[in-house]
Amino acid sequence: MKILLTIHNLSYKGGGERVVTNLANEFCKIRGYEVCIMPYYTDEHNLPFAYDIDPRVKVEYLHNFYDIHEKERGIKRILWRWSRHLLINLRLNKKFKDYDIVIESHLSMLYPRFKTKHTKYIKIMHMVIHKWKQKNKYYNRIVFLNQQELERWQPYSDRVIKIPNFPTQLPFDDIVKKIPESSALLPYENTNDFIKARILLAQYFTKKKAEDLEKYSSFSESGKQKTTETQRIYKLIAIGRMEAKANHKGFPRLIQAYSKIAKDFPQWRLEIIGDDCGQKGMLQDMIEKLCMQNFIMLKPFTPHIESIYLESDIFVMSSHSESLPMVLIEASSFGLPLVAYDIVTIRDCFDKNGILVPNNDEEAFCNALSSLMQNERKRIEMGQQGINFVKQKFSKEVVIRQWINLFQDLQQEKQ
């Protein structure tokens, strides 16, 4: 089976690019599958791919549409917007006519009005949509990532299904169990065993020896809280691009909320981690006006995000709009409790592994943070619940099986 996945730009550190790369890397491991990724744009700065791609996955470009889409103005821009779907459809069919499956991941570049004889077309909705387009009927399946979007759009089409994202690895299954020192800790149900397992993971990812159990927990072997002369710094983290235009991640309301409780917890710091897309300066000004320089830090995105999870104590999300954010799944897989505003579409990421508060209820958000910040045992229990929850619902074995079933169903259907 030959599978083509389309994407915006492989040099872009976006959620869609990450999902497509993960899918391609897993599909190519299946016997008989040939996999290709087709970016719509080549990066004008010749940047490397944002995420590692298995060498068995081909990368081929249809055409660099960047200049037309981003730079042209006037009549050329109008003609491009009017004709791009047809142009891309025909070019793709000509170049990839022998592919069995095409998985479209861009929101609005391809609508396969014209299909090749044996090809089935799938569209993944990486973003929350607010209007159903009739052109979606040209796809054999529309894949949503969460239950709420599925239920909202099912009345519009019988081709709507749900398949979630998945993390590339489950650290407490794929890594810790391979470390000899961890065998005596299984199954991590004891609080201290869980803490030690996180230390082993930290050693694995940082390639350094973890300093001491005290760095990760203030609980002794007997479960009683200790005090030390040098108190550790606890950390909340939020991850996402700092976007000035869209402000999807809602970092201003996160900073505003945390400023209300920060001074009550002098040993805690909030770190917002992500690339600056025009908003960082405004966020820094906001932090300074609130006199929060010692409590809130802005940090650039790092490829070593695993170490960040393991150095942290709570994951927070203040987004206004998300589909199924990988960061929530990943944070849970590393044993972090979650706190987020309930924007409906992220409910699939929550069970007993965190706290959802009513959207825009700042007081409830602060109360949720405070309750976890002052209760380490509760944080650890939620973290343990999160590890099991992600394994059962979002493991790559579970998710890839859903994709294989979809491919098999499509092969049995007539065009």
From TrEMBL:
InterPro entries: Glyco_trans_1. Pfam families: Glycos_transf_1 (PF00534). One of its GO terms (molecular function) is glycosyltransferase activity. Residues 234-387 form the Glycosyl transferase family domain. PANTHER family: GLYCOSYLTRANSFERASE. This is Glycosyl transferase family 1 domain-containing protein. It comes from Helicobacter didelphidarum.
